[in-house]
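Recall the central idea of this unit: under ordinary conditions, the amino acid sequence of a chain determines the structure it adopts. In this exercise we apply that idea directly, starting from the sequence alone.
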Amino acid sequence: MDLTNRVALITGAKRIGAVVAAELAARGADVAVAYGRSQTEASQTVDRVKALGRRGGAYQADLSSADACAALVARVAQEFGRLDILVNMASVYKQVPFDELTPDKWDAVIDVDLRAAFLCSRAAVPHMRKQGGGRIINFSDWVARSGRPRYKGLLPYYVAKAGIMGLTEALALELAADNILVNAIAPGPILAPPETTAAEHQAVADATPLGRWGGEIEIARAVLTFLESDFITGETLRVDGGRHLK
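Accordingly, the structure predicted from this sequence is:
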């Protein structure tokens, strides 16, 4: 796919999402980003897009709401005139001990990490069909891609990210005739959470065969790989520096 004058919607506007947005803009795409609470970071991401000479927009949306997902996609398509690319990156990542995991806490993760990817995709498909095709890129996790739940307290997160792989495969089959390619990325040690200590940071690097964290650009490169290909669909790509090998 030639990205010139294409329109992309990224659900997730800071850290990794900001770098992905900038890389798409650098290749000629207009980029809309959705955010929940990170308005400042979303505005900064849009500024980066505009500095590269492309149109950008930031949209607040509660992705746990079906109506909000539909409204988000509709607004972006209307204001930008089309929609070619959807990157379902938004995610809730919070450890909750099993004995404290209530139905509401379960839903809070599943609704954003899995359900929203379906809802946004469902809303985006008619707009992509108008353009003769499109790309949907979902986000799983290297642990789910490896089929081994390694960390306790992340039960709904793991289930959601495993579900993303199933969603990706099924959507790829459903939408192949429309030339809408659907793939997923399963990040490993890319960017440490802000609260990570120096010792924790080094321990992860030591446990990764390549001996380091990947950095946001590695995810952007994976996104670009899926966008540039016209023959890859239904795949989940680990980007983890070989972390799954240990």
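The helical segments are 16-26, 39-51, 66-80, 103-130, 142-146, 155-175, 198-207, 216-228.
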